[in-house]
Fold this protein.
Amino acid sequence: MSADFSTLAAFRDLLQAAPGIDQKAQGEAEERNGQLTKPPGALGRLEDMAIWYAGWRGNPRPEINAPQVIVFAGNHGVTAQGVSAFPAEVTEQMVLNFQHGGAAINQLSKAAGASLDVHALSLDTPTADFTQGPAMSEEEVVVALATGWDAVDEKADLLVVGEMGIGNTTSAAAIAHALFGGAAEDWVGRGTGVDDAGLANKARVVREGVAANSGKEGLEVLRCLGGRELAAMAGAIARARSLRIPVILDGFICSAAAATLEAAVPGALDHAIAGHASAEAAHGAVLEKLGKAPVLQLNMRLGEASGAAVAINVLKAAVACHSGMATFAEAGVSDG
Ligand SMILES: O=C(O)c1ccc[n+]([C@@H]2O[C@H](COP(=O)([O-])O)[C@@H](O)[C@H]2O)c1
Ligand SMILES: Cc1cc2nc[nH]c2cc1C
């Protein structure tokens, strides 16, 4: 299927029109959860996760059989400002590594029983340096959103999106600063590993970038301060919403991209949970703004969907208990 929008406004309208949770299935799942052979609440957040998943799938006793992981890659003009510990060529080199099966996400997808797709977006044409003006034209951001939209497998029953893009923690920090305010320093982190001087430089770049693109909201923030891989993640998350496919968000960059959807249409991320809290300094603050408690906290800061891929295993465990356990009546266990 090919994406059905050619402007940001049309994309926003589609997102706005996307379905919500199936409340009947959610209610039935909640009822089932109360009958399972365990003390009430004893599976903690696994219970909430399973009920949430059941609601979005419209099935009070669902299974997870076809999780899809998608990694999007993009290059960033803002790397000209010396914001990363690694050179921009690494983006393309890592795409080849993904394709050859040599990256962490290859192993983590396999371990989670998930398919893995990799989409490189115009790597030879980096986005514009956003300290000088908008990173992308409307046409460019719409093409990237559509790449993400079209990448989602309609038959998937869970979606994880992640990214590869040297310089993109600076882009994500600028998005967070534009959406949530505060100071540039509040949103920058070490990314691939810049030193103290590098961190101060990132704060300068974020401050200048937000000043050069002031007064923007929602999807315009994505266009002006984002990158192609961030827009593609946003497009895929929106497509998943339209198909009622639950989503696990990955780290700082993924969460910042997702936050532009929430800014454009409040509630747009109700079908998404946070897979982990990245070690990137401001990820926790972004998740707090989104009202999402991370499933895992493993000090990961790799990106490429890795933290969310690990969290697939936890959601699978939650859903397996929910759908596979016996009820008190079935097992002949006294329910207290
Ligand atoms: O996911 C995260 O929270 C995360 C935190 C730090 C770095 N990364 C990855 O590192 C790259 C961006 O780092 P940088 O320093 O080039 O901005 C990009 O490819 C991301 O996938 C990812
Ligand atoms: C080697 C390397 C792998 C990555 N994977 C995601 N971002 C990355 C950044 C670097 C530098």
